[in-house]
From TrEMBL:
PANTHER family: PERIPLASMIC PHOSPHATE BINDING COMPONENT OF PHOSPHATE ABC TRANSPORTER (PTHR30570), PHOSPHATE-BINDING PROTEIN PSTS (PTHR30570:SF1). This is Phosphate transport system substrate-binding protein. Residues 38-275 form the PBP domain. Gene3D superfamilies: Periplasmic binding protein-like II. InterPro entries: PBP_domain, Phosphate_ABC_transporter. Keywords: Signal.
Length: 308
């Protein structure tokens, strides 16, 4: 009789475990990351940090998601992406063939979303008389040839996308030993230029359109230079219109690169940024959206006095 008494207890205990397991499984499914909820870390090129901060804030207001931004230099972002520190990155370039091959070996096809065009801005101290600069003079200076109007070029970081962009433009692999300065962030570049005449800072345009509270007063102490291309005769400032018409010579496209390998929050965020709401955020930021947001015009037959 004792042996028979054990069986019902065992069956009841097994049934309890199954029910508990089901409940736990259901809970895990509810907390599971989807394209519109969950938590994810996104690697961001520091030179375009402000626009991504804005996109994250708006996205989180719409959806039950938490996006953690990790802003670094371009080289650090790519290194972290390859080493699986995070599987989503925002860059001012696409992956190279060599970088894509690394993901091919991992059986992952990166999804690339083009969402905006940015400009690299050249800035100087407000007291400087000249508001114009020829790109040929900047390139010559980077090749180690002194220029009377340029005391030095100031970059945010030796590993940044702005350094890589300008080096590619000049056709050099390393910066000259003299006349090139670098800090850690765009904010430090802007502050240094505001305090030193004759220096030309190289920063992401978004930092000037959307300065933080502390930086607003500092930005007032600098001026944005109009740039002449290597083959043109006219000087153009980095405005939305000039970037759209291809007149500003230091424009660059921005991409979200998703290497999650699944339909996760990265895909949802990229779709949002490239969609109607995200493109409105880009337009408001001063950058050029890849798609112009639609405008709804309401035609009225009568004029009403709305102030009553």
């Amino acid at each position: 009789m004792k042996n028979f008494a054990v069986i019902p207890c065992f069956v009841f205990f097994s049934f309890f475990l199954v029910i508990s397991s089901c409940k736990k499984s259901d809970g895990e499914k509810k907390d599971k990351e989807t394209i519109l909820k969950g938590s994810v870390t996104i690697l961001v090129d520091e030179t375009i940090k402000p626009i991504i901060e804005d996109q994250i804030e708006v996205f989180e207001n719409f959806y039950p998601a938490k996006i953690i931004m990790d802003a670094k230099s371009e080289k650090e972002v790519v290194r972290s992406l390859i080493n699986d520190s995070s599987s989503i990155a925002v860059l001012s370039r696409k992956l190279t063939a060599e970088e894509n091959k690394i993901f091919d070996n991992k059986k992952i096809i990166p999804k690339v979303t083009f969402f905006a065009t940015d400009g690299i801005a050249l800035i100087s101290n407000k007291n400087n008389k000249d508001t114009l600069v020829a790109l040929n003079d900047i390139i010559a200076f980077m090749k180690g040839k002194p220029q009377n109007a340029i005391k030095g070029l100031v970059f945010d970081n030796p590993n940044s996308s702005t350094v890589r962009y300008m080096n590619d433009l000049a056709g050099i692999n390393e910066n000259p030993e003299k006349g090139i300065f670098s800090f850690k962030t765009n904010e430090e570049v802007i502050k240094f230029v505001s305090e030193n005449e004759g220096m030309i800072g190289v920063v992401g345009l978004n930092w000037l359109y959307q300065p933080s509270g502390i930086m607003k007063e500092i930005v007032k102490k600098i001026k944005v230079l109009s740039v002449k291309s290597t083959s043109g005769n006219e000087f153009y400032p980095p405005s939305q219109n000039n970037i759209a018409e291809g007149k500003y010579p230091l424009a660059r496209d921005l991409y979200i690169i998703n290497c999650q390998g699944s339909s996760g929050l990265g895909m949802g965020f990229a779709s949002f940024v490239a969609g109607e709401q995200g493109q409105r955020v880009v337009l408001k930021s001063g950058l050029l959206p890849f798609r112009t947001p639609s405008r709804k015009i309401k035609v009225r037959k009568e004029i009403y006095n709305d102030k009553k």
